[in-house]
Every structure is written in structure tokens, then in C-alpha cells.
Write a structure and sequence with these properties.
The chain is α/β, with parallel strands linked by helices and 183 residues long. The protein starts with a strand and ends with a helix. 35% of the residues lie in helices and 21% in strands. It has seven helices and eleven strands.
Amino acid sequence: TVGNRHGLLVPSGTTDQELQQIRNSLPDSVKIQRVEERLSALGNVIACNDYVALVHPDLDRETEEILADVLKVEVFRQTVADNVLVGSYCALSNQGGLLSPKTSVTDQEELSSLLQVPLVAGTVNRGADVIGAGMVVNDWCAFTGQDTTSTELSVIESVFKLNDAQPSAITKEMRASLIESMT
């Protein structure tokens, strides 16, 4: 599954019951579309924010068109660190992006220019370069694997500008309970 504030794409294996449950959980303004795609692990082959999407070079043209229409994004066929699984090797928000540490500086600059957001190379979960398997992010918060180090979290907070907003009382309460439950 891959999505943004405009829509959500789900694989063809999604049942009608699952689709209805998802529809009931989201606002009516969010479009949901089932996609017939050979590369069915959509989150591994697509990385997107609200404006642009990086996709696996072999993604079907029809899927690319659906992606552009439902998520309202500009689509770029690209690799990250010479890997076609763009959703696995990077994470994007409207504020920034984290790329596999194997991404060259030249590629980082090219992708940053293409996406129009700041990008950095980094890791999650104590050095894992499969970013998409270790974190999810939006414009307000990120969730990472338990093994993610303080240095990795610092890079994540910085590139995604997660400390720019003042935390609300709810956020403070969530942080306190999370820290309490982990100690």
C-alpha cells in the first residue's frame, strides 16, 4: 500500500471487506484505488509525498497513470542507491527525505533537485540501509524501529523538520507514556 493526503493505492489482493474497512476509516476526500500490478508490494516500489512519487523503473504505465491521478503527484521512474526498490531504500515527506547511505552525493543532489525537498543519506535500526522497512514518516511525526539509535533519530528529526513545530499537550503526553513504557 502507498498513499498520501489525496489518496491510497492498494494491491489487487485486497478483499472487498478490507477495502470497505479502509474506506470507513478514512475521510471521503481521500480516494482509494485497487491496482492490478505485477509488482504488488506497492510500498516497496513507490515512494511519495503529496507532490511527487519515485517509482520502480518497471512499474506498469497504467499503474503510473493511476498513481498520478489518485495521489495527484508527478511521477519519476528512478532508482535509489542503484536499487529499483525506491520505497524500500528511502522515506519521503513534504519536508524532506532520508535515503540509503549507499546513495552517492551526486545522486542525492539530483534527487533533491527533482523532488524539491532536502535529502540526506542515513540509516535506521542501528545501521540498516533499508529505510522503508525501519520507519514511516509524515509531516508531523516519524515512527522507527526500536533499535534506531539516538544519532539516527537526530538525523531523522532534522531532515524531516520534526522539531520545528511546538509539541502539543497530546504529543508531550504521548512521548511521556512511550518513554515510560520503554523503561
